Amino acid sequence: MKSVADFYKYHGLGNDYIVIDPNKLNFNLKLNEENIRLICHRNYGIGSDGILFGPIIKNGKISFQIFNPDGSEAEKSGNGIRIFALYIHDQEYIKENKFELYTKGGMVGIDILDLKSRLIKVAMGEYSFLSEKIPMNLASKEVLNHEINLLGEKESISCVNIGNTHCVLFKKNVTEDLAKRLGPLLENHELFPNKTNVQFVQILDRANIKIEIWERGAGYTLASGTSSSAASCVAHKLGFVDKNVIVHMKGGNVGVEITDEGLFLTGEVARISSGDFAKDFIEKILK
What is the pLDDT of residue 286? Predict the structure, then answer.
């Protein structure tokens, strides 16, 4: 289904991204903060949870950039990676089902398991619970069940870096309201010099967890691959779940496998549309 358009839109469990391919544009687009905000705006732009910019091909390696709707650049996105993997396969940059992609957060391995259902497995890479790796403004230690004060209450947080920063809280019941109330406070907490993604986790059993997500730079999100990976590996580290976990989110479910070598994320993605920017819109983003 190779085609030429200014943008392509996909989603991973309701987490939607716009793919902008610099090799297909007939104008020189500079993705600054103002342009990213406008393109992602759901009233004044196309509307999305972010932009995937690429492929950027150098020395035989394929990389791409991930931008949040607030204009900031993300290191890694599990849904974004699966979406971009399907895009470059759709556009015949890659014809194999197994290949590597490079993000700001490092290399990831791709395995397209089923093209018909668009089921894709991603080797998300290594993970670390160490404060200096996350990074956090704490003395060197594994950040597990670390107590902080939030809105006058004691909260226990566990943190991990899987190529980007995550803060995990376990609750008996997780809700959208909880994520929207505490998520912004934790995202911008002084402990995190680069801000953080936040997951609120409910343990269902040893193979299933439910999460609500507050994403750095994006806000409340229906689904997130890196959040699923982070929540699962923290839950496993603390002894709550086994090595294979199904993560239940508002947007749908993904599978996470936890190994000594790293994390593996498996889930579906879907195509939505492709199109061209209107002349008036191009003039706005070229100002």
Answer: 87
Strand 73-74 and strand 61-67: pairing? antiparallel
Residue with the two structure tokens 């403004």: 137
Instruction: Provide the residue type at 12 as one letter.
Output: G
Q: What is the pTM of this model?
A: 0.92
| Tens digits of residue pLDDT in 49-99 | 999 999 999 999 999 999 999 999 999 999 999 999 999 999 999 999 999
Contact 257, 247 (CB under 8 A): no
Give the whole-angstrom CA distance, residue 196 versus residue 188: 7
Per-residue model confidence (pLDDT) at position 1: 66
- The Cα–Cα gap between 124 and 163 comes to 8
Identity of the residue numbered 206: R
Q: What is the DSSP string of 73-134?
A: EES--HHHHHHHHHHHHHTTS--SSEEEEEETTEEEEEEEEETTTTEEEEEEE--B-BTTTT
Dist CA 103 CA 197 (whole Å): 17
